[in-house]
Amino acid sequence: MGRLRDLVDLVRAPAALSVPGDVVAGAAAAGVLSPRTPALAGASVCLYWAGMAANDWADRGLDAVERPERPIPSGRVSAPAALGIAAGLTAAGLALAGAAGGRRALAVAVPLAAAIWAYDLKAKNTAAGPATMAACRGLDVLLGASPGRPGRALPAALTVAAHTYTVTELSRREVTGADARLPAATLAGTAALAAITAAAGRRAGAPGWRRAVPGALSAWYAAQYGRAQASAAAQPTAGRIRAAVGAGITGLPALQGALTARAGAPVAGLAVAAAAPLGGRLARLVSPT
């Protein structure tokens, strides 16, 4: 059990609850929600976990100073093992994407895997870091749309990418703390994303309760992530910035659910959003950041 807990910690397993919603939102936007969607979501989770393991491998020296409790510096997982896990999960993710969606899915999954490794090995600590991570999430949405017309999922992909940009910008200050202007700026971005998603849902013209779902989920997303950012803006300590990053990760399913419902799949959207409270509970056991 101890070994399993170490692996769960290495890949920050519960944070992967924020991943399947990318694929579902993309599939809904492209009109291709189907039995192959869960398999593509599984491929996405494998690639996400690969990125987490590669991240710890790349950061093992820094973590020895700043986070000595992490699996590699604490000696619970060796550096070669972490690298092997990252490579194996990448291969599994690509294989699953190919099996589920063929060449069209691989045409997105391969650049997605490349972007994940580029972020971990090179871009993370540069000015290009947030944009690279945002591109990873945007490609993840397009992976779900790959069996159909991915262009139809571009608005959803850009929305998730913009959210990811805010989370990544905050994450760069989760050890040192930040200037209050940073969480204030990301809070404004979150409010704009929620408003745009809700408005687009109203314009979709769905009848009855279906029309209300995108707005309700957008408001939930804004409240959950926004509250943590407002707290960080009031007192931008490392702890509050870290809490805002965690809220951005665990609150993402609500935004993905709103995007899915906006595309005409409110039941699927509600199912995606249900991962948000579960992710929040699990984050108390395994840190998502």
Fraction of residues in helices? Answer: over 70%
How does the major sheet shape up? none
Percent of residues in beta strands = under 5%
Number of strands: 0
* Rg, Cα atoms, Å: 18 Å
Please state the structural category: mainly alpha
Order of helices and strands: HHHHHHHHHHHHH
Instruction: Report the average pLDDT across residues.
Output: 92
The dominant shape is globular
Number of helices: 13
Low-confidence stretches: none
Measure the end-to-end span. 22 Å
Overview of the molecule:
By secondary structure, this protein is mainly alpha-helical. 76% of the residues lie in helices and 0% in strands. The chain has 13 helices and no strands. Helix 5 crosses helix 6.
Key words describing this protein structure:
globular, 13 helices, 289 residues, mainly alpha
Short recap of the structure:
This protein is mainly α. The protein has 13 helices and no strands. The longest helix is centred in the middle third of the chain and has 45 residues.
Topology:
Layout: H1 2-11, H2 20-30, H3 36-58, H4 60-66, H5 79-123, H6 129-145, H7 154-171, H8 181-203, H9 209-234, H10 238-250, H11 252-262, H12 266-273, H13 275-282
Helix pairs in contact: 2-3, 2-6, 2-7, 2-11, 2-12, 3-5, 5-6, 6-7, 7-8, 7-10, 8-9, 8-11, 9-10, 9-11, 9-12, 11-12
